[in-house]
Amino acid sequence: MESSSSPAHRGCIFPQGLLLTASLLIFWSLPTTAQLTIESVPPNAAEGKDVLLRVHNLPGDVLVFFWYKGERVNSNLQIVSYIAHTQAINRGPASSNRETIYPNGSLLFQKVTLQDTGYYTLEAIDKNFQNKQVTGYLRVYQSVRKPALRASNATVTEHKDTVVLTCLTNGIGISIRWLFKNQILSHKDRMKLSQDNSVLTIDPVRREDAGGYQCEVFNPVSSIKSDPLELDVQYDPTLSSPGFSDGAIAGVVIGILAGIALIAALVCFLYIRKTRG
Predict the structure, then answer these.
(1) Is the model's pTM score more than 0.85?
(2) What residues does CATH 2.60.40.10 cover in the chain?
(3) Under a CB-based contact definition with an 8 Å cutoff, are residues 213 and 165 in contact?
(4) What is the pLDDT of residues 69-128, one digit of tens each?
(5) CB 151 within 8 A of CB 102
(6) What's the order of all strands across the beta sheet hosting 118-126?
């Protein structure tokens, strides 16, 4: 006779088996390989420094992989190859002998130059002779050089003169910003910048514009400031104050005349009243 505990025992086994089966299905449905990618470390490289093209998610069954200069596989542009099981390294026609290849597929460039800027392609072949390719980009910048600052006139007169400041630099692919008294310059209506920010015009100058000016050149890997240039703004008392234009002066004169007329009318009124009294 079958034990009365058997149905309870079977009822306990069934849900556990179902859960185990579901877990296995979920596990095997997950992707077994992630996407092959290339990362430049650092993203922007300074000329003369080392840069690593780091490979992420290289398959573990790779037999051999190749690096090429450019966006496509071309034997004439092959830099280096690596055979996994023998760890043999062979340099191609595009090698500069400054590259070091690693078993994880990453490629190190030593003392990069501006000519190293561009695309690089990795080709990986697995044990089933399946081919995978991925392309990355290496960007190299030249360290910026110290600019010089020149003024059309370092001594100017308030409300009379215009000053033009020019940032002299021969850098390529750089940006320029202006500083006043060691702070980023706050642009006013009287100030105008050229399209490339290399020329600053102040028209007219005021006493508040007096002080030290600098231009700073920079790119993603470096920056440097010019020596300060001191702008001297002098005051000429013979010039009318900028706060009183011709219209303002006319308004003041009219106001004064109106006040005199009002006072005269008031005196006349009081005199008549007193006479009649």
Answers:
(1) no
(2) 37-141, 148-234
(3) yes
(4) 999 999 999 999 999 999 999 999 999 999 999 999 999 999 999 999 999 999 999 988
(5) no
(6) 44-46, 131-141, 118-126, 62-69, 78-83, 88-91
